[in-house]
Amino acid sequence: MTKRSAWAEVSSKGIENNINVIKEQVGGHVKVCAVLKADAYGHGLCGFFNTLAKRSYTDIAAVGKFRELIKVFTEVNSAGMDVLLLGAAAAEEIASALDNGDIVPRRSIFSVYSLDMLSRLDEVAAYAKVTLRVHIRIDIWDSGMGLSPQDFLNGQDMIMSMPHLEVCGLYTHLYSAYSDDLEEIGSELASFDDMVGKISPGYRKRLCIHALNSALIFRFPQYAYDMVRAGTALYGLPCGDGGRLIPLLRICAQIFDVSEVDSGIPLSYINKNDDGKKKRRIARIMLGYWDLPLLLTQKEVRIWIKGKLYEPADDVCMDNLCIDVSGDDEICVGDLAVLLGEEGIGAMDILARNGIDFVHGEWMCMTADRLEKIYI
Fold it and tell me: pLDDT by residue (tens digit) across 23-35?
């Protein structure tokens, strides 16, 4: 591999493993939608999408923002993959993107949260002289994040007959999925299932129905329907999988300098070592909190070098980090420093050290676009 100052490694073999584990859980007939929102949870949207498409791991992905949808179609060869936009988009920006050729209509799927949004999208499709594909979002709690089950059932004839839209899917997202209240989750899934059972059989055949995200795939596989949405699980973050998933991300940097530094010499914005103590041996890497926000947000940052864990010498900077390797004369320029993805700095280690459960586990994977992603 070409030498770099800092980079993130993403395991292609791990992607394949995790998709296979999910398929084993829900059944091979169920589609796996790869959720690539938030820059593929820090793994790199375009690179990750390209890997999925080239290796035919799945035939559908999902993004969270309209700009992400545009980025996929303008920067990546979609290779026939469909892309579902989970977030809401303004009719005007969709119309503009269609005018500019920034999206591929036959590969784009839009989420619809309300009957008004459905009508506006139909008008956009008529204006652009295309047929747009949509998935209807159902809100079990009627909180404004989708149609209520009754609204859909009462209006299904109209909804499924929009002249310029192909209504090809229906889904829900349960916020209770992240709790430990299995009774409440089961009740909400049962309510959704009751609605699904009342859909006209002719319409049901046309719909791809999905309700399970990563937090539910391993707890309620009986509600897999036609597709599941895998985000956390896809990236190998803990989600009740029993250890079958593989973390994909390894954050690396090459040590570019090792020096003996006197006390009192600043190593960061605020010097914390002006106490007259002896010199320290400092290893430097060109990777900072802008590349990896984890460096600012985790407690007791640890860096893995040659099988041992070391601490930062001072506060992390935006672009670089100093590591205290005092007492270890073996470490030298060119050695590998790892900040995530080795023993002692794996997902479970960091979550435990910070007292965070799996709900926000993706926080560890946030990386800047400037941190190069290497798919290995």
Answer: 999 998 999 999 9
